[in-house]
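Suppose a colleague, Dr. K., hands you the sequence of a protein chain of 204 amino acids and asks what its three-dimensional shape might be. Before reaching for any lab equipment, you can write down a predicted structure in token form. Begin with the sequence itself:
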Amino acid sequence: MDFQDVVRRRRMVRRYTASPVAETSLTRILDNAVRAPSAGFSQGWSFLVLSTPEDVSRYWEIFRGDAEWEADGWLRGMMTAPVLVIPCSSKAAYLSRYAEPDKGWTDLSDDAVREKWPMPFWHMDTAMAVQNMLLTVVDEGLGACYFGIPPRHLGEVREAFGIPDEWDPIGVVSIGHPDTGGAQGSPRRRTRKAVAEVVHRGRW
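The predicted structure, expressed as tokens, is then:
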């Protein structure tokens, strides 16, 4: 598929068919994720893949009985995804990398880290890996949706899947074959801003 077509066709899919995702497709999606840039080539990302019905069900079971979560109509469609990927970032991986001789950061206190990294690059780099995933999904003829994990359930997700303390889940990517009838996303109710409205050349 032409790259411009991939970019234009990318959207958040909120309902999937029962067709499984081919392992070759999933492998390519993950292979492309790790081609994203990362500060100092730290590569402080990891991806928890839930691709069996049992593992996917175990994820959704965490939210059973949460009235606020279950009241959200989009959930019924999202639960049809045959694959969930939980991308995780590691601040510790970046601190370790930048303490190496070629970087030589000797002060890794919280204040020093905030001064040198006013933005959390470990999250940003992992988000770029997610974008690679979303674009590859389209190129594979599949659909995906990136969504968050409610903070009140984050500990349960960690415990259920053994996510180590030094790794922070930044959300979930659902992957599958798009189906009709899912919840309508915001783009159906809002127009995309024009490039001229958001691009500033030379001065704001």
